[in-house]
Write a structure and sequence with these properties.
Length: 259
Amino acid sequence: MAGPGTPLNAIEVQDVSKRFGTAADAVVAVEDISFSVAQNEFVSIVGPSGCGKSTMLRLIADLLPPSSGSISVAGQSAREARQARAIGVVFQNPVLYAWRSVRRNVELPLEVTGVSRADRRRRAAEMLDLVGLQDFARRSPWQLSGGMQQRVSIARALSFSPDILLMDEPFGALDELTRERMNAELQRIWESTHTTILFITHSIPEAVFLSNRVLVMSPRPGKIVIDKHIDLPHPRDARTREADRFFRLINEIRAGLQE
């Protein structure tokens, strides 16, 4: 138990399991998972396809209920955190509305919660500046590249200043060069905002480049089998990807996955 003055973790997962279906037909997606994410930390989860990575993220986001165990987000239940808008979520598909401009897509969460038009515009302008798209505010989403659309999605998720940003393979559909540029952009955004980030990815190099820690999940039913501290210095850039330590960390995590 945390003592007086001890900062709360941003995310606390205790003995969480998720089963789909009942009786003999039940599928156990994740089983007895426990981990924490500190405030302002960047943590990635990697693992084989079908191991329950995205299920775990949806449990934390209160998009699914756990079958057992407990989840605390920003010092409250996952449901309370969602209702308090303490959680922002970015999915692999940007899910932008084609009939709304880039600016109005970013404004949408603020509009839904009744923020005034002037404040919505001011905040959207700040977020588009943060992701480097201030000159595209009036464009339609279909006029942007895939990487630019995902930056709009990140701007929208950050528009209401969530404590925690959950990202479910947001760059999985991008080509390798665009993905590396987006990794650098996300590092810059994280260092600027100090938002706690939990990031789901299939890519070990991406996880190592971005994270303070990498959690490795086993095949279904998913369990956390490795919790690896990433001791690469910040800021990280193209030279980080050429460092011997970068490759050693990738190989250590890959070996853990194979085991």
